[in-house]
């Protein structure tokens, strides 16, 4: 459907379907005509591949993906949008809309059933309130996807794409870098949406690694260590780990010495390799 990014067209469609925006679902629909084509191009989908879209809204991005992909599966939580999507996506026979919660859906099964033999990527305009949980679920599921391209709050994009070992780095940053190589693609102003949010957005692409950024003995313990390290950002790593892991501080200091890591360092100053060293040393201690 043409002119889906035209504000009057959007208002007309939503009014005819009796749709009202839900603040609890963080609904902001794109009305900037240049954003979705650019996002669809940047996500890497082509005529031989499939794409999973999370939260299609009224289908503006879905339309652009459908023009480029062999198949699009759009996962929409709000059942009120299903009749809207039936109208706006009616011309495409390569689009399937699923009324599910992406946080509960078996994504590996979905890929296996819907995209046999295809290269698959993920593309989505994510609600601000649940950005990190969705991104981490997509990564932790270790899906057979080549990339994850998402629009998120500008601040979240900067944090996710920050280099590990820099001031902007946080627990999510380290986790994202473990699974992927993130890059910030372009910014999107708040006026590109209806209703307009109070902050700007940015589109990022997470290029999935074939192997993790660092090899660790216990992956679950690694992420537990990362969360503990960043749990008290203003404190040094010895204090953060001691509190976050409920361990004696002197034991933590000794562990850090074994790893040749100064105990006065802060988590944001640690490299992926150093975080991995700490995790592996903890793994050895817990086994003894």
Description:
It is a single chain. This protein is an alpha/beta fold and 288 residues long. The protein has two domains: 7-208, Rossmann fold, CATH 3.40.50; 219-287, rRNA adenine dimethylase, C-terminal domain (Helicase, Ruva Protein, domain 3, Orthogonal Bundle). The protein contains twelve helices and nine strands. The strands form two sheets. Strands 4-3-2-5-6-9-7 form a seven-stranded mixed beta sheet, sandwiched between helices. Strand 5 (119-125), helix 6 (131-140) and strand 6 form a beta-alpha-beta unit. Helix 2 packs across helix 3 (60-68), helix 9 (219-229) packs across helix 10 (237-244) and helix 9 (219-229) crosses helix 12 (272-287). It is elongated, with a radius of gyration of 21 Å. The mean pLDDT is 93.
**Count of spatially separate domains:** 2
* CATH class categorisation of the largest domain: Alpha Beta
Question: Shape, please?
Answer: elongated
Nearest-angstrom radius of gyration?
Answer: 21 Å
Query: Low-confidence stretches at least 5 residues in length (pLDDT < 50)?
Result: none
**How many beta-strand elements?**
9
User: How big a fraction of the residues is strand?
Assistant: 15-25%
Structural class: alpha/beta
Helical content class: 25-40%
Main attributes?
single chain, 9 strands, Helicase, Ruva Protein, domain 3, Rossmann fold, 288 residues, 2 domains, seven-stranded mixed sheet
Secondary-structure map with pairings?
Layout: H1 7-16, E1 29-30, H2 35-42, E2 49-54, H3 60-68, E3 71-75, H4 82-88, E4 95-98, H5 107-114, E5 119-125, H6 131-140, E6 147-153, H7 154-160, H8 171-179, E7 180-188, E8 193-194, E9 201-208, H9 219-229, H10 237-244, H11 249-258, H12 272-287
Parallel strand pairs: 2-3, 2-5, 3-4, 5-6
Antiparallel strand pairs: 1-8, 6-9, 7-9
